[in-house]
Amino acid sequence: MTFTTRTLTADDVPQLDQLQQRYAREYPPRSPVPAQFYLSPYFEGGQNVLCAFDQAGCLIAYAPYFPQNDIAWVEVEALPGLESMAEVKAALWLWLIDKARQGGIRSLCFQYYPIESEAIAFAESRGARYSYSIFNMRRDLEKPVPILPLPDGFSLHLWRMESEAEQRQYLDRRNECFPEAPTSIEEWQYFTRTPLWEKGVNVAAFSGESLAASVLVFWEPDSHSGSTEYVFTRRDYRGHGLARFLLAESLRYLKDHGLRQALLEVKAENRSALGIYIELGYEVVAESNVYIATLPALSDRLSV
Fold it and tell me: Is the pTM of this model over 0.85?
C-alpha cells in the first residue's frame, strides 16, 4: 500500500473526525476527541500530529504527540480494517520516536481500553509495558446531592478567572499540585475559548486571598453530561474536607444547569480520591490502562 504522511492542517479536520468516530464505534467505550482540538496550542497548531493518507488522499491513520515534562502522551490510531496497517503504524511510530529524541523526552505513554487489543499489541511490540490503570467514573445527578458545610476559615468562589492575572494564579496552583502535567497560559486561554467553558466554572475554596482547593466544572453545549476534573487541594490546606465539599458543590452546579450526570477520571491507585468519589455517589463505569515505553529502550525497529 502506498501512503504519504504530513502534519495536520485545518483541511484535514473533517476526515479526522470521521476516522475517530469510526474507531470509537469499533472500540467502545472509546470516545472521539474533537479533531479541531488537535489544531490547538496543546499540539502546536497541528505540528505535533502526523497524518497518513492513501493514494486517493483519504486520511487512514494519525499520531498525536503531547509532551509534558520528560514524557509525552501519544497515540497511533488507524482506520479499523486498514490494509497494511502495520506498515502505516510503523511509519507513525518512527516519527514519534524522532519527536521524542529531539525533545529530550524520556517516555511515551499510551492509554487504551482492554478492547483495543490490536493497538495494545502494537505498543507492546515497540517496548511499551503496562504501568497503571485509570477509572472512568460517573455520578447520576438525578440522585440527591449531599449538602456539606463549608470548612471553617474558607470562602467559596464560583470563579470564572476572566483576567490573565487570575488565570496565572490558578495555573500556578494547579501546576504546583500536578507537576507531572503542567498547563501553560496559552493552553488554558485556548480552553476558555472553546464551547466547553461557555458555562464552565472553577468551584474554588480560598483562604483569604489564597486559592486553597479547586474543582473545574465544564461541559459540551447540548450535552447531558458534565465533567468534574482537575480536583486538587494544596498541601497546606489538606485535612479540612475541602475536596469533598467542593465536589458536592460542583455536582449541585451541574444539576442546577440541567445536566444529568457528572464524569471524571482518576488513577486506580489514588485510593484516597477514589474513596471520596465513591462516598459522593460516583461509580466506576470503565477502566483503561496506561502503557509506557521508556528511553533508551524505545525501539525504532522497522519490523511489522
Answer: yes
